[in-house]
Write a structure and sequence with these properties.
- The protein contains 4 helices and 2 strands; from the N terminus they run αββααα.
- It is mostly helical and 97 residues long.
- It folds into 2 domains: 40 residues, no CATH class; 55 residues, no CATH class.
- The chain is elongated.
- 1% of the residues are buried.
């Protein structure tokens, strides 16, 4: 499902570079999704790129052992002495990773 979703996108306006419009499936509704290579997509300067940069900065800051605490604990692997995270990633949270 994820692979299929990554290969298609619903386009509100325009098309990725090099993509030509396909004929409508039905004339009364038209086509709202076309296949394209992921290499045809570029993240330009926008709030989405700023969010990507902020997320990468955060992930580089987070202690890897703390991020893996619940996974390792659930599988009986050493937690390497890491302290568990709190909130949504705490060991006793119902929807933990």
């Amino acid at each position: 499902m994820v692979a299929w979703f990554q290969r298609f996108i619903v386009l509100a306006v325009g098309f990725p570079v090099g993509l030509t419009q396909s004929p409508p499936v039905r004339n009364e509704t038209g086509v709202s999704a076309w296949p394209f290579d992921l290499g045809a997509v570029a993240l330009t300067s926008s709030r989405f790129q700023q969010n990507e940069a902020r997320t990468l900065t955060y992930l580089k800051w987070v202690d890897v052992n703390r991020m893996l605490y619940v996974f390792r604990n659930n599988h009986g692997i050493s937690t390497n002495g890491a302290a568990p995270n709190g909130g949504w990633d705490s060991p006793d949270f119902q929807f933990r990773s």
